[in-house]
Write a structure and sequence with these properties.
Helices cover 19% and strands 32% of the residues. It is an alpha+beta fold.
């Protein structure tokens, strides 16, 4: 009897113990499952927060239209555009090309920054910078570089591609590197015997085989800082005319609806023959620089002083702001506002015009 009662008691205790264990287990399992489900991102968020491919669209502001992302990848601002990019992309040096301004142009509208630079005879060349990963099926017409053009490129931190160099006179003792699509061989092709072109695949092969570093230098800095608020000047500048010579000039015409300036040569807009797009920019800079023209029996060559600094203008949102420019001890370009501080600019693409100081009075805007 005692045995029977003791067995019943044991069974009763075991029943309560098992019930308690089951209750705790169920509660824990439910709590743990709910926590896991709540923290698991949905498929849209996962896709939106996936690591960037490294490609940057220079014609957008880099904003995310998919809404707030759970656990997004850290982002930084591109040093020359202010666009949001991935940290991995921020370490890559841009790629730049020298274009002949009076030849057929392919790919130039994809450049996030273009510098127009005078040569002799009133002519100009374009130095255009592109983000790494931008695919272009045709790039050109590629022109030769000059030491002073290469110096501007070095100040901007870009890897330069050119059709050789055509300096007749020494610019400086500094060794300015660039990749030569002609000397390297096999990385370009010609059309009509005089126009030289390349493409993204050839350029990537050229860079890989050259052994040059693809990284942005630690000492490279943008000439300006990007503002979190819109920058506007006090004077109207809906049209900016830059006369490089009596026969060659550039005009930037502002579109209020687009908030950008379109580049014109003469009466015609500069058009990219690769995609039929116009060359448009959020920011326009005109920098006045001293120049010398050497003349010998064999050659005439203009050399621009890209180090000495000078005055200039910043045009944005249809307005004008007076500025000045110089180079720092590391060779970086620096743009200053009227108070001597580093210039704040709007986020976006840029056109920079180096104009001879002797032609300063010919610049006009209204």
């Amino acid at each position: 009897m005692k045995l029977a009662k003791g067995g019943s008691l044991l069974r009763l205790v075991a029943f309560f113990v098992i019930a308690a264990v089951l209750t705790c287990t169920a509660s824990f399992a439910t709590s743990g499952w709910q926590s896991f489900v709540e923290n698991e991102p949905n498929s849209d968020d996962a896709a939106a927060g996936a690591p960037s491919s490294g490609e940057v669209d220079e014609n957008t502001d880099g904003s995310n239209s998919q809404g707030e992302i759970t656990n997004p990848e850290p982002t930084v601002k591109h040093y020359l555009t202010g666009y949001t990019i991935s940290p991995s992309e921020s370490g890559n040096a841009p790629i730049s090309f020298i274009y002949s301004s009076d030849s057929p142009l392919y790919g130039i509208s994809n450049a996030f920054l273009t510098v127009e630079i005078p040569t002799e005879g009133g002519q100009t060349r374009y130095l255009s910078l592109f983000s790494r990963g931008t695919y272009l099926g045709k790039i050109g017409s590629i022109a030769p570089t000059r030491d002073y053009i290469s110096a501007i490129n070095k100040a901007l931190g870009s890897m330069l591609i050119a059709r050789g160099g055509d300096d007749s006179f020494e610019y400086s003792d500094t060794e300015l590197e660039y990749l030569d699509i002609i000397e390297s061989g096999g990385y370009s092709y010609t059309e009509y015997t005089e126009f030289h072109y390349t493409n993204s695949d050839l350029v990537e092969a050229l860079i890989k085989n050259s052994g040059q570093s693809r990284l942005l230098g630690d000492t490279v800095k943008a000439p300006f800082i990007h503002s979190d608020t819109e920058i506007r000047g006090s004077e109207a500048a809906l049209s900016v005319i830059i006369p490089y010579s009596d026969s060659n000039g550039s005009q930037l015409i502002y579109s209020a609806s687009e908030g950008k300036y379109t580049l014109y040569k003469g009466a015609n807009p500069v058009r990219d023959l690769l995609n039929d797009r116009l060359c448009t920019y959020d920011n326009v800079f005109v920098l006045f620089a001293d120049a010398l023209t050497h003349e010998t029996a064999e050659a005439t060559e203009t050399i621009l002083d890209t180090v000495g600094g000078g005055s200039g203008y910043y045009f944005t949102r249809g307005t004008a702001i007076k500025i000045s420019w110089a180079t720092d001890e590391l060779g970086n370009l620096v743009f200053f506002n009227e108070h001597g501080g580093v210039l704040s600019v709007n986020v976006g693409t840029s056109y920079v015009a180096f104009e001879k100081s002797s032609r300063r009075d010919f610049l006009s805007y209204n």
